[in-house]
Amino acid sequence: MKKVSLSTSSPIGFAIAAVCILGAIGLGVYVSRQDGAYPSSDSGSIDAEVVHMASTVGGRLIALPVHVNQAVKKGDLLYRLDPEPYELAVRQAEANLALAAAEVENQKRLLAVKTANAAVAQDQTTRAQTNHDLAARTVERLKPLAGHAYIPWQQYDQARVALNDAAVSLAQSHQQASAAQIAIGDLKSSLAAQQAAQAMLDQARYALRQTTVIAPTDGYVTSLRVKEGEILAPSQVLFTLVANDTWYASANIREITLHAIAPGDCATVYSMIDRHTPLHGHVESIGWGVASLDSAGLARGLPLVPREMDWVHVAQRFPVRIRLDPADPRLLRLGATATVEIRHGEACH
Amino acid sequence: MLRSFIRPTSICSTLLLGGCAVQGAPSFALVGAYFPDWMLCGMIGIAVAVTLRVVFVLTGVDALLSLRLFTYLSLGVITALLAWLIWFGP
Lengths: 349, 90
Prior knowledge:
The complex is a heterodimer.
Chain A: H1 11-37, E1 40-54, E2 59-63, E3 71-72, E4 77-81, H2 84-147, H3 153-183, H4 188-209, E5 212-214, E6 219-222, E7 231-232, E8 237-254, E9 266-271, E10 278-286, E11 317-324, E12 337-342
Helix pairs in contact in A: 2-3, 2-4
Chain B: H1 2-18, E1 27-30, E2 33-36, H2 37-59, H3 68-87
Antiparallel strand pairs in B: 1-2
Helix pairs in contact in B: 2-3
Domain p-hydroxybenzoic acid efflux pump subunit AaeA-like beta-barrel (chain A): 246-342
Domain Multidrug resistance protein MdtA-like barrel-sandwich hybrid (chain A): 50-241
Keywords (chain A): Membrane, Transmembrane, Transmembrane helix
């Protein structure tokens, strides 16, 4: 076998080596700049919004027309709880309202009676005043006659007593009139009771409506594992609805390349369910915060600072949210692995 | 003059490389795991460097070279970077 010398020192050899090394360095710098200017991530995921379906009221599940993984449209019936207790509550509230309304009518009648009583008391005052005036005039008239003994003193005394009597009656009738006026009162308390009963009825009707749960958005039913007959507590989640109106991709991008990303930038997203179909999307926003292990600060107390002397620090990554254009629904599953290329790739030419 | 030279070459290279363009995501599934594009480019670089070494030894070009380790390393790096630029670059 021919022996190859390892220590050739021809100028051509050095020249070739220099060209190759410089070329590699130059290309390396160029590629590194391109990579920084056009960020990409192969650890993204397909994302969508979810609704945890629950009712604000509890009860027995009596109708469940949907099944797991089913697609539903906005407004579709998802499930129904036993409405009977809530119907009974509505009837009770209706009866309470009728009672309150009857009480208002009762109070109106009482008010009319009291008003009439007050009027009677006022008339009594007038009568007492008239009687008092007459008694006073009688005393005035009899006084000179009694002084000249034209009439017996007895008669004059009787007139004076009658005047005192009339004065007492007048004062009493005044007091009675003002008491009757005060006693008239108003309908405020019974009207307020009626309003309270009306609010209770509205509340009962609202609770009755909550026994029927409809789809708030188009979506897919997921993690549903129960059937009719299940008893649900108020606000207990029965299943999760994955919203199908808008899909997103979430890609974690290193902070050193975030400067090259702005909301509105075109993005090519591949769902790894089919890595040959590019999905078109736009950067919607960049996450404003992530939890950092270095600053694991408790709500109260002192910050936890580990003792360390690391020389190499791995770059932090922030989630970039990409809104996808409508695409083949078979490629869109919440949590699917996604490859994201921002401002380049098949969909951004 | 320069312009008329660049245009045909760029068209040629586009035609040549267009056929090689990798369609799809820059991430490859292998036995249930995804491998990144740069790993494939690195493999290509290593393979090309080894192949070049064999070819140069057989053709006698190797005898002209000095600083062989650096030369072949650089050739491998250049191949890997070019492969990345052509197939996966922006």
